[in-house]
């Protein structure tokens, strides 16, 4: 499946089974740097399972997954995320009891976070950056609204803005336009 | 909630009332001390249960552990603990005022630190569990601790252990323990208010809302859970040490690890006031304690029925608690932004 070579993400012979169901069978995939790569397949073909395996939710049964040349198939989800490999979910996942700005702030990169930083406040420039991105996705006016109160499409946009502020090196978007009004997708 | 003169005046009034309580209500000092303890119970339970979404039924473990750690330190500094418990009543034990206060101070410090260490070990075992499994897992630890302490003869076993006797008069003793409870509850409240205003507060709220998402964003979830549990354990350990000395006698099941009373009360009080808020647990503790004492006084024999009814009304009719209900009714007063551009139900 797809090509071989030195990519940002390299999967070799990835196999994942759930009981008797082989969700991913010997997948080999290479995602190069600086490109938008699409993964296409019918419902139930194992696209989300592969995403889950890459980001660590489903430990694989066989094969290898490398990110920037480093084996990541045995790492935990947050460890992989802190390397800069992040994903969005098929179903929108936001922190629904927090307002939009807080959703953005908690999504700032956690790579260099030490114990001392837990006891600090977010700097004003972080808040500014959060508001800029909320403006970019058209949610500035609703920035202090509890995010669970947003419409489905707005939640999807918020999730996208959260992914952007986390400054990932690779962002895996799982069905990013599913359930969204075509006007919003094109607009 | 911003710090306006009105808010400052409110804080000042509560502090003043707390400080003057021994003068205003000298006959109710023990109950008022227990009230501050109840506030601490609710505040510390809410760190995990309300702010982070991990409903622990075993927090009472740290209360009991703190009590025993303090007792062992207080006695162990001057006597052999095993001999002290085995010959209790058979020999005259005598603590000088200096020995008493040194032991009490070191006992409280040891209880806080010991419980913090316990919480890290305990957390490593139970943090793999979620939802009801976490609740039952933590409950199991608290129940097992009570039973185990009942079999450990070195600390008195089921017969319990007496704490050193306060060296001065009963009135002074009542005032001392009242102020200790009061100061500890106030310090806990102030510390949590400060802690929740930092990144830590955002992170544990994110874990509450969607832990899987938080992990996918790289948040050190285990680190935050460990710290949250440790903070609760630290203050509960201290409260156990103070409460043990206030009672004067530790018995494993009813005093140190009272899972079905204090252990459940801390959950109920938080739910009653409104979990996930700073003032909700405080309000819940006050209402619950007043109702509890009133029913124990005026409805003796029916007190558990009355408390059960209160819990049922809370759970069935307003799960969000008193503050949660008020926030829904008057959101602007709680600093919650309302989207007035949307019609009801229109998404």
Structure description:
The complex is a heterodimer of chains A (187) and B (347). By secondary structure, chain A is of the alpha+beta class. Chain A folds into two domains: 9-83, Rossmann fold (3-Layer(aba) Sandwich), CATH 3.40.50; 100-186, Rossmann fold. Helix content of chain A is 28%, strand content 19%. In chain A, strand 3 and strand 4 (70-71) form a beta hairpin. Chain A starts with 8 loop residues before the first strand and ends with a helix. Chain B is an all-alpha fold and 347 residues long. Helices cover 73% and strands 1% of the residues of chain B. Chain B has a two-stranded antiparallel sheet. The chains are: A alpha+beta (187), B mainly alpha (347). Chain A binds chain B through residues 55, 57, 76-78, 81-82, 86-87, 89, 93-99, 102, 105-107, 109-111, 113, 115, 117-122, 142, 144-146, 149, 151-152, 162, 166, and chain B through 195, 197-200, 202-203, 205-206, 208-210, 212-221, 223-224, 227, 276, 336-339, 347.
Write a brief structural summary.
The complex is a heterodimer of chains A (187) and B (347). Chain A has 187 residues and is α+β, with helices and mostly antiparallel strands. Chain A has 6 helices and 6 strands.
Set out the fold topology.
The complex is a heterodimer of chains A (187) and B (347).
Chain A: E1 9-18, E2 21-31, H1 47-54, E3 62-67, E4 70-71, H2 77-82, E5 85-87, H3 100-106, H4 124-136, H5 152-165, E6 170-172, H6 182-186
Parallel strand pairs in A: 5-6
Antiparallel strand pairs in A: 1-2, 1-3, 3-4
Chain B: H1 5-24, H2 29-51, H3 60-76, H4 81-86, H5 97-126, H6 131-151, E1 161-162, H7 170-196, H8 199-216, H9 221-247, E2 249-250, H10 252-256, H11 259-273, H12 279-298, H13 303-317, H14 321-329
Antiparallel strand pairs in B: 1-2
């Amino acid at each position: 499946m797809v090509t071989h070579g030195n990519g940002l993400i390299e999967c070799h012979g990835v196999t994942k089974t759930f009981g008797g169901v082989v969700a991913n069978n010997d997948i080999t995939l290479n995602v190069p740097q600086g490109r938008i790569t699409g993964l296409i397949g019918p419902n139930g073909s194992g696209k989300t399972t592969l995403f889950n395996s890459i980001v660590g939710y489903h430990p694989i049964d066989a094969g290898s997954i490398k990110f920037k040349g480093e084996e990541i198939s045995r790492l935990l989800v947050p460890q992989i995320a802190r390397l800069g490999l992040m994903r969005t979910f098929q179903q929108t996942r936001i922190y629904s009891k927090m307002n939009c700005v807080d959703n953005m702030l908690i999504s700032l990169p956690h790579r260099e976070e030490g114990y001392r930083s837990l006891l600090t406040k977010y700097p004003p420039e972080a808040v500014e950056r959060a508001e800029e991105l909320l403006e970019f996705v058209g949610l500035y006016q609703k920035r202090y609204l509890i995010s669970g109160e947003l419409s489905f499409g707005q939640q999807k946009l918020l999730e996208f803005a959260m992914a952007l502020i986390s400054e990932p090196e690779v962002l895996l978007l799982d069905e990013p336009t599913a359930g969204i009004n075509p006007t919003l997708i094109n607009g | 909630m911003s710090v306006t003169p009105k808010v400052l005046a409110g804080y000042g009034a509560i502090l003043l009332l707390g400080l003057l309580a021994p003068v205003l209500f000298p006959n109710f000092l023990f109950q008022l001390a227990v009230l501050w303890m109840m506030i601490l119970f609710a505040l510390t339970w809410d760190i995990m249960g309300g702010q982070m979404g991990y409903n622990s039924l075993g927090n009472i473990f740290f209360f009991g552990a703190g009590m025993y750690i303090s007792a062992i330190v207080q006695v162990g500094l001057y006597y052999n603990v095993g001999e002290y418990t085995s010959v209790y009543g058979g020999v005259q034990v005598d603590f000088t005022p200096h020995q008493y206060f040194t032991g009490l101070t070191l006992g409280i410090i040891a209880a806080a630190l010991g419980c913090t260490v316990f919480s890290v070990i305990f957390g490593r075992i139970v943090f793999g569990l979620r939802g009801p499994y976490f609740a039952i897992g933590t409950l199991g630890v608290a129940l097992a601790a009570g039973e185990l302490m009942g079999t450990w003869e070195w600390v008195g076993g089921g017969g319990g252990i007496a704490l050193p006797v306060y060296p001065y008069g009963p009135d002074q003793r009542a005032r001392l323990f009242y102020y200790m409870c009061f100061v500890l509850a106030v310090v806990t409240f102030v510390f949590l208010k400060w802690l929740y205003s930092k990144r830590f507060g955002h992170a544990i709220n994110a874990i509450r809302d969607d832990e899987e998402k938080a992990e996918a964003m790289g948040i050190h979830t285990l680190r935050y859970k460990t710290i949250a549990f440790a903070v609760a354990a630290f203050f509960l350990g201290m409260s156990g040490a103070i409460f043990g000395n206030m009672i004067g006698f530790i018995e494993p099941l009813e005093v140190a690890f009272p899972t079905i009373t204090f252990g459940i009360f801390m959950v109920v009080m938080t739910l009653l006031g409104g979990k996930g808020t700073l003032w909700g647990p405080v309000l819940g503790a006050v209402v619950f304690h007043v109702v509890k004492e009133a029913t124990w006084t005026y409805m003796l024999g029916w007190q558990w029925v009355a408390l059960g009814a209160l819990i049922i009304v809370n759970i069935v009719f307003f799960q969000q608690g008193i503050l949660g209900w008020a926030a829904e009714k008057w959101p602007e007063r709680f600093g919650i932004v309302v989207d007035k551009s949307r019609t009801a139900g229109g998404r």
